[in-house]
Amino acid sequence: MKNKNSKKTKLIVCLILGLIFPARLLSMTGERPVKYDLKVELLPETHTLQASETIVWTNLTQDYVPDIQLHLYWNAFKNELSTVARESRMEKLFKRYRVKKDEWGWIKITSMTTADGQDLMPAASFISPDEPPNPFDQTVLRVVLPQPVAPGQSVTLNLEFQAKVPRNGLRAGYYQDGFFISQWFPKPGVYEEGKGWNCHQYHLNSEFFADFADFQVKITVPEKFVVGACGEEVGKTVDSKTGKATYTYVQQNIHDFAWTASPRFIKVERLFKADEEVTAEEYRQVADLLGLSLEEIKLPDVRMILLIEKQHRNQIERHFKALKAALKYYGLWFGPYPYRTITMVDPPFRTGSGGMEYPTLFTAGTSVILEKDVLSPEGVIIHEFGHGYWYGMVANNEFEEAWLDEGINTYSTGKTVAAAYGPGKLPLRLNGLPLSWFIKLPAVYDWQTDRLFSSTVAKLDPIVTLSWKFYNSGSYALNVYQRASTCLYTLERLLGQKTMAKIMRTFQMRYRFQHPKTEDFIKVVNEVSGKDLTWFFQEFFFNTKDFDYAISSVETTEKPDKFEGIFDDQPVKNSNHQKPEPKKKKQKIYETTITLRRYGEARIGPKEKLKLKVEFEDGSVEWREWDGQSRWVRFTFEKPSRVKTAVLDPDCIWLVDTNFSNNSYSASGPGHKILAFQSNLLWLMQNLLLTLSCLL
Amino acid sequence: MRTAYFINSGIRQGFSRFRLVIYLWLIILPFALLAIVPITSIVRNNLGHFYLSQPPFMPFELHLVEVFMANQNIFQPYFSLVLTVIFLFGLLSIFLNAGVFGQMVGLEKKITFKDFLADGCHHFWQFFLTFISSLPFFVLIFLVYRLLALPLNLWIDNAITEWPVILGSNLKLLLAILFWTVFKLLFDLVRIIIVSESKKVIPALGTALSFLKNHFFKLWWLYLITAFIFIIISLLFLLVGRLFTTNNAAGVLVIIILGQVYIFFRIFTRLVFIGLETSYYFEYRGVQ
Q: Across the interface, do B94 and A667 touch by the CB < 8 Å criterion?
C-alpha cells in the first residue's frame, strides 16, 4: 500500500513537473550508457588525489564489445614524450603548454577488478589510436574484458587510482592551496556501433568527448577548503578528528565531472527567477520568432552558485548579471536549461584553468582591475555557460569536429552579448593597466572581430578538421571559433534571423543529450530553411578557399557627342559646305564601367546573387546582380551624372568575405578618417625617433 | 636647494634657443614620413575610395586592421625599412645631439642653423665615442637593475593574488625608468663637460663621476621632478586628445595640431633637461 501510494505520488509529481517543465523532464529521462560512483580525497601537501571509482558501462549497441577503452588524461603531463608535450614543442609562436620539471601530473590505476573480483590489470595496456602513433603516450588504456559485453548487458569495473595534479595542466592545475580538478578520473570513451571505441589520446589542440552518464561523487578535502563541483551538492560531513570534510555531489545525464577547492573562495548563491528576468513581451517576441507556443519557451528557475576569489569580491554582481543574461537568452533562443544548478567558478589564481566548460559548471576568469566598457569577464562567462548547451547537452565530438560546439557557441555568445550589453570596447592593457584610460578605443561587436581575425586562416585549414591535424594552435582556434562563427553569421544573413533562430533551436532540441555530427547540422539547416545549402558547407567548412569579391575598378568617362570614323548608315557629307548648327547646350552623358572581380577561390551558391548598388551624383540609384561564378563581370551605365558610391553586397550578407575594404567605391573616399590615421601614425613614428634620439 | 631656480633656468634656456626645436622638428619629420610612407600608401590604395556607410558596417579602425591582414606579406620588408631608417636616424641623432649640446652649452647668442650644423660636426666624433663608452655603463646599470628587481620578481612569483603581479611589474618598470634617468643624467653631464671644457670622453667621464659623487641626489632630484612634470603634461595631452573625435574634419585638424604641438613640447623638454643640467653644473662645478 505504501509503495503504491508512493508511486502514485511520484506519478502526480511527474505529471505536474511535466506540465511545468516539459522539456526538462523529457530530456532527463532515457537510459545512459555509463554510471559513475567516485570517492576522492585531495591531499594538498603532496598535490595528489587518492580515489576509488566504480564504472558501470552498459552496451546500448547491437555489437558484442570485447574491451573497454579508458581516458587517463593526466598522463599527458607525465613526461616529455606524451602526445601533448610533443605537439606543444611543435608550436612556434604561442605555446599553450610548457613542460616543466617537478610539475608533472599523472594518473595511475593501482587496482582494477570486475564486479565478481576478477583482476583486470594484466589485461590492460596503453594504446595510441591517433596518427601519427605515439607508443610513449599513456592517455588511453585498453582493457580486454573477460568476456565480450553483449547488447543490452553491462560490465562493472571497480578501480583504485592515484593521481598527481599537474601544476598547470592546460585546464587543470594547482597553485599553492588552490586546486582545479578536471579530466581527473578514468573515463570510458564513446562506443560507436559498428565502429568500435572512439577514444582519442589527449592532444594539445583538442578538448573532449564522452558518453552521458549519472554521477555520484564524494570529495574529501581539508575542512578550510571551499568546494565547488558539477551537479548538486546533496551532503556534507565533517570529521573533526582529521579536520576533513566530505562533500557529496550527484548529477544525472552529464558526460564529465570537474571540481575545485580553495580556501580563498567566497561562495555566493542566487536564484535565477525566470519570471523576474524575462518579461511577457520578451516571451511573446521569442515565441513569434521561433513559431512556438509560450509554454514551449517558458524558462525554469535555476540555482546559480558563484565561487569567486576573495580578491574579486567586488565583481560578484557583475558575474551574476552576465550569468543571468546567458541563462535568459540561451534559454529563450535555444531551449530551457534542464539542470537545477549552474556553478560559476572564478578559477583559483594561477591554476591555468580559466575559461573552460564542464556540464553544470564552468570557469570564467577576471582581473582585479576592470574597465566598465570592456565586456570582460562578461564575454567569457556567457561563452563558457553557453557550452553547457553546445558540448554539454548537444555533445559533439570535440576531438573530431570542434567547430560544432566552439563555432556555434562563439556565434551564440556574440548574439547574447550584443543583446544584453551591445558593443564592447577593445581590451588593451600594459602591465595589467588598461590603456583605455588614456587612449580612445573603438567599441565593437563580437562578429566584427570574429570575421576580421578568421580571415587570416581561411586558406590554412578547413573548419572541419580533426583537432590535432590543424596547422597550429592559431589555425585551430581561429578556424573552429571565429571562422565557424563568421560562417554562421553569414548563414543567418543569408536565410534571415527567423529561419536561423529556428535552425539553432531545432538543432539544440533534436540533438540534446546526443552526439550529433556536422552532417546532422547540415540536415537541420536544409530541412528548416527548405533549401539545399550543402554547397555552403562544402565551400566554407570542408575547404580552404578564400572568399573575396571586390569592386576592382570604377571608370567614368564623358560620352562623346559624336564618334569619329566612317559609318555606313549615314550619308557622307562635305563638312566644308555644311552650315554650322546653332549651339545648344547638350546634356552631358557619362559612361561608367564598374568591374567586379572574384579574387578568392570560394564562390557563392548556384542560386545566389551578389548585389551591386550604384548611387549617382544626381541621387539616382541603380542595382545590378551577379551570380559570382566567373572570375569577373563588367557593368556599364550611361547616366547624366557621375558615380557617387558603389557598394558590392550592400546588405553585408557575406561576412565570410575576407576583405570588405575592396567591396565599395566612393568618389570622395572616407576622407578625414585616413588623414587621422596617417597623422596618428606620423605622431607615433616621431615619438619613436625622439625616444631613440634620447637613447643615444 | 633652488629647484625652481634651476627649472626656470632650464625653461629659459629652452625658450631662448627655441629655434633648435624647429630645426629638430624639421629634421625628424622627413625621417618619420619616410618610415610611414609604405603603410600610408597601402592604406590609401585600399581605402582611398572606400565608402564608409552611415552608420558604418564596422568601426573604421577595424577596416584598417583588415587592410593590414590582407597585406601581411609587406610587413617583413617594411620592418627592414623601419630598422634601416632607425639605424640611419640613430647615427644622425649623435650628430644632432652634438649640435644641440653645442648650442645649449655655449654662450647665449642667436641660434643659426649654420652654427647648429657646425657644432654637430665639431663634436660628432667625441659624442660618438661617448655613445660607445656608455655601453659598458648601460650593461652595468642593467645588471644592477636586474639585481634590485629580484625581490620584486620573488614577490610576483609567490603572489597569491593578482595585485602583487600588477604592482610588482609596474614597480619594475618604474625602477627601470629610474635607472635609465641615472644613466641619462651621467652621460648628459659627460656631453656638457665635453662641450664646455673641451675635454675628451674619458676625462669628461671622470669629471662627471667626480661631480656626481657630491651632487648626484640633488641633480637627480631636479631631473626627476622635471621628468614628473613632463609625464603629467604628456598625460594631459593624451586626455585632451581623447576629447576630440575623428568623425569630422575639424576634430581631425585639432588632433593633428595637438599631436605636433606635443612633438614640439617633447623636443622643448629635452632642451629644458639639458638647460637645467648645464645651469646646475656651471653653478656648482667649482664646489666639490
A: no
Q: How far is B18 from chain A (nearest CA, A)?
A: 17
Only one residue has cell 529521462, namely A29
What average pLDDT does the structure give for chain B? Answer: 93
| Residue spans of chain A under pLDDT 50 | 1-27
pTM of the model: 0.91
Amino acid in the structure at residue B126? Q
pLDDT tens profile B57-75: 899 999 999 999 989 889 8
**CA distance linking residue A531 with residue A503, whole number of Å:** 12
Q: How far apart are CA A427 and CA A450, in angstroms?
A: 15
Nearest Cα to A554, choosing from A597, A588, A587? Answer: A597
Half-sphere exposure for A182 (CA within 13 Å, toward CB): 29
- For residue A305, what are the β-bridge partners? A269, A343
Taking an 8 Å cut-off on Cβ atoms, the answer to whether A685 and B161 are in contact is no
Alpha carbon distance A366, B288 (integer Å): 56
Residue A516, min C-alpha distance to chain B (Å): 34
- Chain B 97-116, CB below 8 Å of chain A: which residues? 97
pLDDT over threshold 80, residue B109? no
Q: How many CA atoms lie within 13 A of A379 on its CB side?
A: 18
pLDDT, tens only, B159-176: 999 999 999 999 999 999
- Please list, in sequence order, all residues whose beta carbon lies within 8 angstroms of the beta carbon of residue B185, skipping any fewer than 6 positions away: B212, B219, B220, B223, B277
Of B32, B57, B165, the CB nearest to A685: B32
Q: What is the 3-state secondary structure (H, E, C) of A577-619?
A: CCCCCCCCCCCCCEEEEEEEEECCCCCCCCCCCEEEEEEECCC
Tell me if A694 and B63 make a contact (CB, 8 A cut-off).
no
**Order of all β-strands in the sheet with A259-262:** A168-169, A172-175, A178-181, A259-262, A226-229
Q: Does B199 touch chain A (CB under 8 A)?
A: no
Cα torsion through A346, A437, A382, A323, rounded to 10:
70
8 Å CB contact between A302 and A327: yes
Interface test with B, best of A350, A551, A685, A688 (most B CBs within 10 A): A685
Tell me: pLDDT of B55 over 90.
Answer: no
Distance, first Cα to last Cα, chain B: 16
Classify residue A214 by its DSSP letter.
Answer: E
The beta-strand segments (E) located in A153-301 are 154-164, 168-169, 172-175, 178-181, 187-188, 190-192, 196-198, 213-222, 226-229, 232-239, 244-254, 259-262, 265-272
Question: Does B252 reach chain A within 8 Å, measured CB to CB?
Answer: yes
As a whole number of angstroms, the distance between CA B39 and CA B105 comes to: 39
Q: Which of A440, A449, A674 comes nearest B242 by C-beta?
A: A440
Contact status of B55 with chain A (Cβ, < 8 Å):
no
pLDDT of residue A169: 85
Confidence of residue B56 (pLDDT cuts 50, 70, 90): confident
Question: Which amino acid type is present at position B119?
Answer: D
Give the three-state DSSP class for B14.
Answer: helix
The ipTM estimated for the assembled molecules is: 0.95
Q: What's the pLDDT band for B12 if we cut at 50, 70, 90?
A: very high
Give the whole-angstrom CA distance, residue A236 versus residue A234.
7
In the numeric block, the cell 671622470 is attached to B206
Q: CB contact, 8 Å: A369 with chain B?
A: yes
| CA separation for the pair A614, A646 (Å, rounded) | 4
The pairing of strands A424-425 and A341-345 is unpaired
What integer pLDDT is reported at residue B166 of this predicted model?
Answer: 97
> Is the minimum CB–CB distance between A665 and chain B shorter than 8 Å?
yes
Interface touch A685/B36, C-beta < 8 Å: yes
Q: CB atoms < 10 A from the CB of A121, how many?
A: 12
Report residue A643: phi and psi, to 5°: -75, 135
